[in-house]
């Protein structure tokens, strides 16, 4: 039986780390998880938790992937030995808290580059194959900040509102290609 191949961005902590562990340790052994991290030196907690949970051999593999870099994305994609990704989880994210006028341009650019442009880059890399196979799922980590504006989170909320619009627009188009 072919396992469902899942690639998750942002697995050094939080939702990405816990989702990777949950799928890799699933009793059905239905998933092959590629847990990606911008910096592989941060993989220690993930690998320690995988060992503690008793993840079966071959259920979890870590890859270096920086959503800000198209070459990094292409390299990670090339390391997926199954030749396909069934489920793409765009989870990498960055926050920015404080008064808008206090943020440096580089900090604003970084949030938009990771949260919005990084998600677009990931979709651009994996959608063509999903559409060709007429199969696949894309999950994008949202936020309450993508539904309502939160005080002192203007840039973060703007990036998450944009993600909501991106996903709503794509859902209609991708349905006819069998991609959810």
From TrEMBL:
Gene3D superfamilies, per the entry: NAD(P)-binding Rossmann-like Domain
Pfam family, one: adh_short
Keywords: Oxidoreductase
GO MF entry, a single one: oxidoreductase activity
PROSITE patterns according to UniProt: ADH_SHORT (PS00061)
Family to which this protein belongs: Belongs to the short-chain dehydrogenases/reductases (SDR) family.
Protein name: Estradiol 17-beta-dehydrogenase 1 isoform 1
Organism: Sus scrofa (Pig)
